[in-house]
Amino acid sequence: MNKMSNCLVWIFGRGASAACNLHWTVPEQWQLDDRDVQIGNIKKAIRSEMNSPDVDTSPYKFLLSELSNRTNPNWHHRFLTTNWDFLLQREINQLGLTATPRWLPETHVYHINGTVEEWPSAEKAQPPLRSPFLLESDLPNQRLYASEVEQAVRYIIWRQAFVVVGMSFECAMDRAFLNALGSLENDLTIGNSWWLIMNPNNETLQKVCARIHSAFPKSKYCSEPTGFNEWLRKGMPQLVTAGILKNAGKNE
User: Fold this and answer.
1) Which one in 35, 191, 246, 249 has a CA-CA gap of 20 to 30 Å to 231?
2) Distance separating the N- and C-terminal Cα atoms of the chain
């Protein structure tokens, strides 16, 4: 990886939420409801689940602590997710940062499929940066490239280092997003990217590797057949080898 790749882009899928013990999925019977009714019910349900005592966001807390302490000086991080929950954003907000640190110059988590996060009642609509809420059953042409997605795409196409956590690219919406990025790969930095792909389900892991290789045939990748929690506790060794993180315990 060359010096232009000084940002590691994290792409979080459902497996990251599962690592925090948030396993919620849309009930089948809800798919018979009108789209707006579905979205309203999903938002209420996930907000409720996020506040359940069973949900444990220690993986995100640990990740943020490790990145703060161990990121090498010439690297920083940005976060993107297809998840509707805002567990990671909530943890970042609770850091109480008064200024953006070197390792995290952007505290916004990009939710490319929308989020269940609420905004102050004084705001009549969601902030303009936020993406419209998308269902897994939506067709790819329903994605409106709102400011949030546009900003995310403009940024990541010039990056070379990615970590994919618990992401399958299984639904048509997510596959189309990946393929749209891949269609630009010949002319942009992302075409020669490096990917760390993580999933404890080996069959899913191999499918994700194949999809990323298909989208970016000149890219390199390594696969990690473990869950997010286990990999964190192992010290994120691939990121140490890549020179992105210091060895665990060596924070000076």
Assistant:
1) 191
2) 24
- Every domain of the chain and the residues it spans: 3-55+74-230
Which residues lie closer than 8 Å to 45 by C-beta, 6 or more apart?
24
Tokens 């990025």 correspond to: 181
Residue 156 to residue 8: CA distance in whole angstroms: 9
Compute the distance between CA of residue 94 and CA of residue 114 in angstroms, rounded to an integer.
21
Pair of tokens at residue 39: 């979205």
Q: What pairs with residue 111 in β-bridges?
A: 81
List Cβ neighbours of 227 (8 Å cut-off, separation of 6 or more). 15, 19, 166, 198, 200
Strand 7-12's sheet: what is its strand order?
110-111, 76-81, 7-12, 161-165, 194-198, 220-224
Dmax over CA atoms of the chain, in Å, equals 56
Taking the CA atoms of 183, 215, 110 and 100 in sequence, report the sign of the dihedral they define: negative
Q: What is the reported pTM? A: 0.91
Q: Which token pair is 68?
A: 């703060």
| H/E element, 154 | helix 147-156
Q: Which residues contact 242 (CB under 8 A, 6 or more apart)?
A: 1, 161, 194
Strands 110-111 and 161-165: unpaired
Residue pLDDT tens, the chain, 252 long: 544 459 999 999 999 999 999 999 999 999 889 999 999 999 999 999 999 999 999 999 999 999 999 999 999 999 999 999 999 999 999 999 999 999 999 999 999 999 999 876 555 555 657 788 989 888 877 776 667 888 888 888 889 999 999 999 988 888 888 888 888 766 678 888 999 999 999 999 999 999 999 999 999 999 999 999 999 999 999 999 999 999 987 654
